[in-house]
Amino acid sequence: MSEKKEGNGVSRKDFLKQGLAASAFFTGAGMIPTGCATKKAAIAKNPGDAKNIIFMVSDGMSHGTLTLADLVKRRQFGEVSNWMKLYNSDRNFHRGMMDMASLDSPVTDSSAASSSWGCGHRVNNRSVCMGPEGQKYQPILEVMKGAGKKTGMVTTARITHATPAGFAANVVHRDMEDKIAEQYLEQRYDLLMGGGSRHFDPARREDGKDLHKAYSEDGYSVVHNKQDMATASAGKRLLGTFSTVHMPFVIDRMASEELSTTVPNLAEMSETALERLSGHSEGFILQIEGGRIDHGAHDNDAAALIYDQVGFDEAIKVAMDFCDGRDDTLLVITTDHGNANPGLNGAGEDYSETAKRFDRIQNFRQSNHWILDGLDRESSVNQVRDRMAHATNLDISREHAAMFQKAIRGELVTPYYLKNEIEAVLGSILANYLSINFIGTNHTADYVELAAMGPGIEKLDHFTRNTELFDLMLESTGVRVSA
To answer: Quick one: pLDDT at residue 231?
Structure first.
């Protein structure tokens, strides 16, 4: 199958992989409240212990998302996804399912999910490493820092967003991102890269503090684009904020020459992080999050979802390449919850139209978010069709365009009220052309995929409670914390 060329003349396959070629140029168990006095965490130097931890999170990845991305890699790029390559390899790996429930709901949000791994406790949704009575649970990055390890987090969401915060902060509500940015500085974590500059910018913070300046004065290299990331001093801590809010969807980044040349992708950030952290004698812990997969699912946006998952899969290759030939690194690859549960439905007689419809995703150029940004209540049916045609290369029927026009105006009512949302209506319309549909717009209670390789995986059962991964990280590294 031929590769689709983007507007900047780069194939989608080459675009997703360009960071890997360029990145070679980048070198340059109970817990205690944090308010209690602590001794420095100790590392038990036992043979086979994990020196390093790489913890990878495909945020909001339903099983259908993993399947759809693997199908795209096979059908469009002629490759098996790196996640599936692990399962088909002769490596010593663990595969199982994980229960991600929060303390107060079978359906978790991202902050409670990440906190379960990051502090070893289930907490209420919206909380970050905080118990329902105000208990502070020491986050894993703080624990590992106390043991002398380097610490880092990389995400395509805001660096202060729920999933990174669950490994590194204590707040009663995940929306306290200005405070989270301050806590990162207080702890002096070694590497932070993602979006979210607004939480460091004095013009956007409610208190007017200039945290970019504060980080710089504390010895950090502060960077805002791919070029500066590549040349930042290797001997300094690193803060990279590459967008005001979240980083762009992969599919929107591919359509923009400016974004593709100035904003690093997840694989590039991951390789840079590993290069900067891996030389430390006591090892490191690094969280890597594909944060916008979740957002694509919330938006019922098949193209945004799939290509961000493909981008995450390229970061998996970076991590697996790092682990090859070494026995000192625990690699965890998982997700915090399902979201909207997309699936490829059979189409046509004997499902004969399924592949044809699915392959249309390869011609999409923009996200649904991009489509919506150019439409409003006054948009005509023709304007709706033109906007959608540019983004999807599909000839949307006038009937479907009129239906979407009604949704924009708030005049469309569906039997399942969550599907009244504009994003859900757009996703449902496109399902007629792609055969990819979603069950809703929210997180789901599904047991999630868990893969791991490296020291300590023999301790995992095939069905795992989320908090057990906190114990795994402590036990595999030999780190102990005592009051």
So the answer is: 95
